[in-house]
Amino acid sequence: DRRKQLQTYLDExxxxxxxxxxxxxxxxxxxxxxxxxxxxxxxEQERRERKKIHKPEDDKPETYLKMIEKAKLDxxxxxxxxxxxxxxxxxxxxGLESEGLQCLETALDLCRSVDNKEGMVxxxxxxxxxxxxLESSEHAIKYFQECYDLLEGDPIGQGExxxxxxxxxxxxxxxxxxxxxxxxxxxxxxxxxDWNREASCLFTLGSIYYEAGEVRQAVEAFxxxxxxxxxxxxxxxxxxxxxxxxxxxxxxxxxLRAMDYxxxxxxxxxxxADLHGQAVCxxxxxxxxxxxxxxxxxxxxxxxxxxxxxxxxxxRGIADCYDSLGLVYFDIGDVDAxxxxxxxxxxxxxxxxxxxxxxxxxxxxxxCYMRAEDMGKAVISYERCLEIQRxxxxxxxxxTLISLGLAHFHNSNHDVAIKCLEDALDMFxxxxxxxxxxHSGKAVCLDHLGNVYSSIGKPEKAVTFYTMSLRxxxxxxxxxxxxxxxxxxxxxxxxxxxLNRAFEAFTEALHMFERLEDDNGISICYENLGDTYxxxxxxxxxxxxxxxxxxxxxxxxxxxxxxxxxxxxxxAHLAAGEWRLAAEYYExxxxxxxxxxxxxxxxxCYENLGxxxxxxxxxxxxIECYVQHLTLxxxxxxxxxxxxxxxxxxxxxxxxxxxxVALQFLQQAMSFxxxxxxxxxxxxxxxxIGSVQGKxxxxxxxxxxxxxxxxxxxxxxxxxxxxxxxxxxxLLFFNINDFANARARFEAAQRLLTETxxxxxxxxxxxxxxxxxxxxxxxxxAKQHFQTALMADPSFNWAGKID
Length: 803
What we know:
41 helices
């Protein structure tokens, strides 16, 4: 079609006498050689015409059937065979392959019966082509081989037969056999010194080498083809060879070299007004720029390609352009533009009945909707893709099942997600063991199943699937996959409170990541080890692990990871009672979260920093932090922790003597806890309210609040909470000089605390009892209690505890 189009342009140009008689132009266009080719073709055509007994007036089966009947009556078996041959080809073109096969076999039998060698060659060749169409390469090769044997003494015919054998073997995936046939054809072409056929043969040979992964040989063949196409002035063939060289260099990462070949090809196609060729070149150039992450230039070339394909009205080509544009927009994160292009492509695929193209569009749309977090539409797209793939037994079916499972998982349809992933796993398990994708695909399914069970709170099941995945990855030598699996297993053991097993998993993963020199993996392991040590109560070891993680985050410019690590260090130092160090780490973390604009993380940081400042006695700073937290929670609409912050604001204001303000915050916090039906924290609020009321001189109100707190804690059997209430009651009695009642409350609290073995609280309670004795003038008892209090918790950090 492209040659006819170019011939039309040339005929129009040659209509002018000046152009038609220009000798230099004739030489440039190779018209002399062309005229010789035309003459040879005319002679060949006349030879073929002479052999035809009858030429049908139209291409209807009835015409050929009449021709066959006439030949039978005349007893002309050659003419009869020609009729069956033509009828068979017509049936094949109409999609009636079985009828066509019968006719061609009849033609072959008739030719054999009269030993018509030329007719046998034609019939054998046609049968070979038909069996190729029916994807029965074994039969095709048999017929082409017989055809080759019959053509002994005809090198051109034998060369064509070798080429057909080569293409059949290549289509069947037997590339090395295909190469052998192609080399035999090439040898014949060189003996005949037929440059055109030699160039075609080299082009085919390069394509087969390319498919076989023999890139060096492919480049050599294409470059030799390029030389011959230049010699024969076959400009379209030259453009095709340049394109193939571009694709080959592109595959081995020589993008600039590939770009040069594509641009040369594009210039030739533009000079020859070859619109189809231009579209191909523009498509390839767009792909190269996409691989180089130059997305704007990729979009420009794909849009130019789209305009050309629209000009020649190539609906499938237009759809391909929309797909390419969709892929670029998806990569740069413009999901809306990607969806728009894929939907345009989908419409064209439907119009042209391109089911496989439609299937790919649905898959890409599913990916887009997944990224846009529109899981409902993602599920619909993947299901439609799956429906088409099942019609064709498409190899991508298992990948779509996995994607569908993940879409259901993110849409909280966990049972359906598990079913999809288990179906995919079953398909991988039925693949032959030598298929590498069977093992890697199985591991992917097992990982995803582990993730689903982990998210629905079934850590035991998650561990089972991760362990199965771990075995598969060990078998295929995927050390990175092994290490990641161990990290997942460790996290599930943390949830199960199996800390020693978690520690073992993270340590083994760490050693693997160190062998792989994977900094990201190493930092993840140190972070998880820090979390494990924190749960074990090993604060020093936790700090050591977080300290090892931090510099890696800094070196890899992982700002979010750095901030998270600083938060962890703040928490660890806070747990170790090192308030000042904790505050420093939280301040550093806060600065990064501010730079990143992560308001949710800033909120958490302000809350943590407020707690540390409270412990340091810097109550004004503590209040500022809590106020910032509440401001941010209103901005982003996340008030999940507001009640806790209101409680802490109450305590901070009480610490600076702002009792009225403190009371308001505590009462607001209590209202929240009442709505949440959180009895424990409601009791805590009442305890603090009672304490503040006592300090305000409202002793009766304070005692009433403490009594309510005491009743609630008795109701939920919270011994430590009851002890706290009794201590606060004791302090209230102490402040109104009722030392006997105060001492009774402190002693009751001490008995409860002794049962729980809370040494720090026992020490405090003993100190208060000593204070009661001191107030009553019993110095000896007071001194003894104070000494007992000091010795009660040797590990307690008394620094800064002036009282």
